[in-house]
Amino acid sequence: MKNDRKKETSKAKSSFKETLKSLGFALIAVIILNSFVLASFQVPTGSMENTVMAGDFLFVNKFIYGGTTPPTVPLIGILFGTEIEIPFWHTPGFAEVEKGDVIVFIFPGYREEVKASQFQFYLKRCVAVSGDTVRIEDKKLYVNGKPFDNPPGVMYYNHRENPDVPDPKIFPPGKPWNKDFYGPLVVPGEGDVIALSMDNITEWATFIRREGHEVEIRGGEILIDGKKTTSYTVERDYVFGMGDNRDDSLDSRFWGFIPEEYVIGTPMMVYWSMDQGPGNFFKRIKFSRMFNLIN
Length: 295
Hints:
The protein is built from five helices and 16 strands. By secondary structure, the protein is α+β, with helices and mostly antiparallel strands. The chain has two domains: 37-188 and 238-289, Umud Fragment, subunit A; 193-233, no CATH class. The strands form four sheets. Strands 1-2-16-3-4-14-15 form a seven-stranded antiparallel sheet. A four-stranded antiparallel sheet has the order 7-6-5-8, with no helix packed on it. It has a three-stranded antiparallel sheet with strand order 10-11-12. It is globular and about 75 Å long. It starts with a helix and ends in an 11-residue tail after the last helix. The relative contact order is 0.18.
C-alpha cells in the first residue's frame, strides 16, 4: 500500500511539473508573439475618430517596423494595474514609418516631461517624418508646403481658433501658435544640427534632456553636460503624430516629437468593439465595427 501511495504521489508531482512546464512554454510563446509579431490594442479615446473609435480593439502588426523586446515586465500591469519599465531593443523591420501611417507608439511624455510619468501606448497618424516641415493654416495641414492627403476618416468641427491668440499649452513652449494655426516646424532627424541661443533654448531644453543630456543656463550661457555650447546635434530620428479627430486630439502639437524607435507597430483590423460605460452587455457590442480594416 505504501508503495502504491508513493507511486501515486510521484505521478501527481510529475503531472504538476508537466503542467507548469506547458504553461511556461505557452507564456513564453505568447510573450514572443506579442513582442515581435502581433499585439492587441484597445482604443481608449476618440482622438482618432472616425478612423478608429473609442472601444475598438485592434490587432497591431509589430512585424512590419521590427518587433521589440517587452518594454515592461510582462504580466505586472495585468496583475497590479501599473507597469514597470525595463530597457528594450528593436529588431530590424521590413519598412520605415511613412507619412500617412497609423501608428501605435510608446508615449514620450507631456511637453515639459523628460520622461512620461506613466507608461502608455498611444495611437495617432504619422503626418511627417524627419526633415519634413509641418504647418497648419486655418485647420488645413501642409507638409513641405503641400496639402496633406487626408484619409476619409479625418474630421473637424466648425469652430476655429483665432490666429492671433496663442495656446499656452502648444509645443514647443513660447511659440505664438495654436492647434488651428501652427508652424512652420521642422521635424528633426539624426545628425541635424540645431543652433541654440537664449532666445530658443526654452523650445529645445526638454527635447535635449529626452535624448539623455543635462541642460543648464548659467551666466547667460547654455551648457549641455556641463560644456558651453551654441549648437546641438540630434541623435535620433523623429516623427510627428496627429489624431484624425483634429479638434479633439492631444498630439504632437501639444507634447512634441515621437522618437521613431518608440513606434512599435501599425493597427490592421478591428477584431472587437464595444461602447464604453454601463449598460446591457449585448447592446453595447458594436457589430458594425468588427473586422473593419484600418487605413
